[in-house]
């Protein structure tokens, strides 16, 4: 079946069958890995095919074509990390440009904004963002970009992508959406009007905690060329082996996201009955998922432990056996994280506490293990803290 015909198939079918490298005569069912750094050309200046892997590589291109299809975009670029992909977006800006973004962001994103990009005179305004008018009120004559996460990390706030992008288009402002938590199976920012969809692909797209990667997907060809130039000029490409790993990972993305979501909903049901839990943060309101153009809630849950100081929270995080205490998220394995001392430790305490990232906050990346084992694990951790 031709790639063009395959791209008209449903998401689940495309995730499995797209992503093959050019036919090499082997008739292999799985794509090959092309570790070549350079390629033979027919004459000096020949750019008719692959020339140098910083420009393009067969394995990486197979992945990029598959990701563009899954996000309903036209071009995708695979980067060496999610932060490298973010840096490419901001490489299009100029000194003095202004960006409106969210108070609740992944700590590494905010670190890049505050400790790297401000050195290049990029200005930032942070807003809550759950009311789209927050973005419009923050616009200046130098605003060039809206940067969103939805759901946000770690408080799981939902941002109205359609409303924010409509504001951006009215003022000729680009909108980029970090779609890491939702994935293209649950939410498609480009279909909702966003100009750029971003992923830390180390998470759900890879799905097995065995690669570091980032992705940008766009529909507009002119924008794609600008982003590709940033990637090519800086040299932040994904290597062929990790591209192959992600091609393997996205084949099961749909079944994993469904299991992540089912497990997370059951975890939330349990947390709502646990006396030691103060507040639950989940894609929705009061712990209940709401659509907001998402087809399911995904696998991320955060909560605060009632009247707990850092030592009690630390003990809780260290008392699980199925949930692994670790950075990152989105793998088949369940992970537990203490944002204040881990993923968001680079944000000053007084800043993060203003918007809810307190010392008693726990973030769970709910995996695809048996739900009974996950619930027992959490019950035993709470019991250990009660002693």
Provide a descriptive summary of the structure in words:
By secondary structure, the protein is α/β, with parallel strands linked by helices. It has two domains: 3-250, Type I PLP-dependent aspartate aminotransferase-like (Major domain) (Aspartate Aminotransferase, domain 2, 3-Layer(aba) Sandwich); 253-386, Aspartate Aminotransferase, domain 1 (Alpha-Beta Complex), CATH 3.90.1150. The protein contains 14 helices and 14 strands. It has helices spanning 3-6, 11-17, 58-70, 82-90, 107-115, 133-138, 161-170, 183-186, 221-234, 240-250, 253-273, 310-317, 349-354, 371-386, and strands at residues 75-79, 98-102, 123-127, 143-149, 174-178, 196-200, 214-218, 277-281, 284-285, 288-289, 300-305, 324-325, 335-337, 361-365. The strands form three sheets. Strands 1-7-6-5-4-2-3 form a seven-stranded mixed sheet, sandwiched between helices. The chain has a five-stranded mixed sheet with strand order 8-11-14-13-12, covered by helices on one side. Strand 9 (284-285) and strand 10 form a beta hairpin. The radius of gyration is 21 Å and the shape is globular.
The number of E-state strands comes to 14
Structural class label: alpha/beta
What's the helical proportion of residues?
Answer: 25-40%
| Largest sheet, strands/sense/barrel | 7 strands, mixed
Mean pLDDT: 93
Q: Unreliable stretches, pLDDT < 50, 5 or more residues?
A: none
CATH superfamily of the largest domain: Type I PLP-dependent aspartate aminotransferase-like (Major domain)
Shape, per Cα inertia axes? globular
Count every helix, treating DSSP H or I runs of 4 or more residues as helices. Answer: 14
Query: C-alpha Rg, in Å?
Result: 21 Å
Strand arrangement, largest sheet? 1-7-6-5-4-2-3
Q: Tally the structural domains.
A: 2
Top CATH class of the largest domain: Alpha Beta
Series of H and E elements: HHHEHEHEHEHEHEEHHHEEEEHEEHEH
Task: Write the CATH architecture name of the largest domain.
Answer: 3-Layer(aba) Sandwich
Distance between the termini: 61 Å
Give the amount of beta strand, in percent: 15-25%
Q: What name is given to the CATH topology of the largest domain?
A: Aspartate Aminotransferase, domain 2
